[in-house]
């Protein structure tokens, strides 16, 4: 037998329950992974809440990624071996003691990859791709990162630094998070509750604006971002944590060759998995070398998923929250 966290209805963290279930059996080209840790992503919270296209058919197991050891191989699953330490994108959720994952989305881990990084596959891949694949950040450019102390944001800060960004501006919601970002080497921090980020960016860039804006908020934050986006700049939208869509005028885009780009790691997994594989390899190499460090703000036992999600939902955590066994 195995165990998993189930969301049996939509709602607050209290809807998450710890349940026993049969041990899953890997199908063709699948592996079974005995989970060591899984990360809490904001998408997990949106799925639990339901609405706006989030959440699977009830009941469902939350979670996007996990790390652990290969426990069994399905027919045709090649390139992996039982007992191997891996990170994976499971089929049907990751908040479980055992998960099934496609072999082509299961990644062997070198000894140098820390456990916090191994359990942060989605965050690492997303941060790498919004900076490089979607954002096309060039050395010397200015990058503005919303939710910069969050699970993806603090990694995007480090990815941008590794990529040679000239100036990194991070937007946060508290002074404690500002202190955390300064420790990561952010050049300027904007507290969104005290300052208008658009005005601050335009002052810091002498009116030119940011070359790259990484936006996981949506709504008016995205709309206002156009007012501080440089000519030839890219605004990458990879989430809607604010819960509202944005309505963007087109003249500011074509008149100065600006671009608004959408990015989803989940969509790439389905449509262009090689992009995900390339990003995972690059991101884990950075983690192994120390070029990027995943900050685990809290580690809780897997049965305490409700408490873990409440911590992330509260918005005061800097870095990642992990569920471990």
TrEMBL record:
It holds the Pfam family ADH_N. InterPro entries: ADH-like_C, ADH-like_N, ER, GroES-like_sf, NAD(P)-bd_dom_sf, Quin_OxRdtase/zeta-crystal_CS. PROSITE patterns: QOR_ZETA_CRYSTAL. Keywords: NADP, Oxidoreductase. Residues 11-323 form the Enoyl reductase (ER) domain. This is 2-haloacrylate reductase. It comes from Deinococcus carri.
């Amino acid at each position: 037998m195995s165990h998993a966290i189930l969301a049996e209805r939509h709602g607050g963290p209290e809807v998450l329950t710890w349940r026993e279930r049969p041990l899953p059996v890997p199908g063709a080209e699948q592996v079974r992974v005995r989970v060591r840790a899984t990360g809490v992503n904001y998408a997990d919270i949106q799925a639990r809440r339901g609405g706006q296209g989030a959440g699977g058919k009830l009941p469902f197991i939350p979670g996007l990624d996990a790390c652990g050891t290969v426990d069994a191989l399905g027919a045709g699953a090649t390139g992996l071996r039982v007992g191997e330490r891996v990170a994976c994108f499971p089929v049907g959720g990751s908040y479980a003691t055992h998960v099934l994952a496609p072999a082509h989305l299961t990644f062997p881990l070198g000894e140098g990859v820390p456990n916090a990084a191994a359990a942060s596959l989605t965050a690492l891949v997303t941060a790498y791709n919004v900076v490089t694949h979607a954002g096309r950040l060039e050395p010397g450019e200015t990058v503005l990162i919303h939710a910069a102390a969050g699970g993806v944001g603090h990694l995007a800060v480090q990815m941008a630094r590794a990529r040679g960004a000239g100036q990194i501006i991070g937007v946060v919601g508290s002074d404690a998070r500002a202190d955390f970002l300064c420790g990561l080497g952010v050049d300027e921090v904007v507290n969104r509750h005290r300052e208008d980020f658009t005005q601050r960016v335009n002052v810091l860039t002498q009116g030119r604006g940011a070359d790259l804006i990484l936006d996981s908020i949506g709504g008016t934050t995205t709309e206002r971002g156009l007012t501080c986006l440089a000519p030839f700049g890219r605004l990458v939208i990879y989430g809607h944590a604010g819960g509202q869509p944005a309505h963007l005028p087109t003249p500011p885009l074509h008149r100065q060759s600006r671009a608004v780009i959408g990015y989803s790691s989940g969509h790439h997994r389905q449509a262009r998995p090689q992009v995900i594989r390339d990003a995972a390899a690059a991101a884990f190499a950075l983690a192994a070398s120390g070029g990027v460090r995943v900050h685990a703000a809290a580690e809780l036992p897997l049965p305490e998923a409700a408490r873990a999600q409440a911590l992330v939902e509260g918005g005061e955590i800097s870095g990642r929250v992990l569920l471990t066994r």
